[in-house]
Amino acid sequence: MIDTLEVTTSGHCDPRVSPRIVASHPALRGIGRGCGALVLFGTSWAFGAAVAHSFYVTLMLLQSPARALRGNTRVLAAGWAVVVSVAGFLIAPYGLWPMLIGLSAVALIQGFFRFGEIVSMTRSPANFVVFAGLSGTGMDVVDVVLGSVLGALFILIVARFLFNGEKPPPPSSSAWDRLRYGSMLAVGSVIIVLIAHWLDFPFANWALLSFCLLLAVGADHRRRRAGERMLGTVIGVVLATWVALLPDPLPLIVVGLSALLCVAYLHVGNYTLFVSFLTPAILLTMPTQLPLLETGIEHVEAVVGAIIIALMVSVAAGVLSRQRSSSPVTESGD
User: Fold this and answer.
1) Is 330 among the domain residues?
2) How many whole angstroms separate alpha carbon 285 and alpha carbon 229?
3) CA-to-CA distance for 124 and 78, rounded, in angstroms?
4) How far is CA 8 from CA 66, 97, 316, in A?
5) How many whole angstroms separate alpha carbon 39 and alpha carbon 260?
6) At a CB cut-off of 8 Å and minimum separation 6, what does 152 contact?
7) Structure pTM?
8) How many domains does the chain have?
9) CB 3.0-4.6 Å disulfide test: which of 131, 169, 264, 302 passes with 207?
10) Does residue 218 fall inside a structural domain?
11) pLDDT digits 0-9 by tens, 198-252
């Protein structure tokens, strides 16, 4: 469950959530994570690995909404997570182009979860593609539905106890702002999936997740976040490559230490070091037939591609916004 930490980083950009709500009660939050691990194990034991995997991927999507949203909107986000899971799984067998249409729709709808500069739900397109990939593995749609529903119910129950403090009403967000964000997300997601398909690139999900998280921060902070993610990924790949040369069980020990350091740097808000230790923790535990160095290089390539596409769609959206804001002036001058 190491890469679950990746989702929580967007919480640092959420000014609506009081620091007391996010950072208080660390013991209870630890208990929440422990309960999550136990429930995941119990789900796997009771229903099988397929249901447990659906449960886990749904949890990753809902961690940020669980903290940032209020009760009714949180329930809506949980329902949306289930829809994304089932839709991705059912659409994938019809081919690439229907999947791209579904991916675009998912991205546009995620735009409605934007409140001001706050993106409460960050990775719906990534989850859609993950479940699309699962459709060819022999998993049954019942496993997807059951795992997603259980994951959504679990996160709602945990959020009810851990993140149920008073939150101010969400900032207003115009339909244009939500459409602009959703369109940026849709265009970039489609480009990533198409390029990965044409190049037979195996880490499209990592590129797509990186892209979604880059767009989750405000436009003024996006370039800085891109630089931090790039630097952290390179440091993490170098560290993982070196650690892989050590004799057992040292790599496993490093994985545990890296996971702890991820949590530590996540809480202090150092995104570069967070990614630096997240990357080796993922690479050293990833089931793959490729050499670790090759896997690491392809992770770097995925992040580079995500950064380029995120900055391109951001610039394009900025140009369109400036044109839109200046158009009334032009009309009045005529």
Assistant:
1) no
2) 20
3) 11
4) 10, 31, 28
5) 21
6) 58, 62, 78, 79, 81, 82
7) 0.80
8) 1
9) 302
10) yes
11) 999 988 999 999 999 899 888 888 899 999 999 999 999 999 999 988 888 888 8
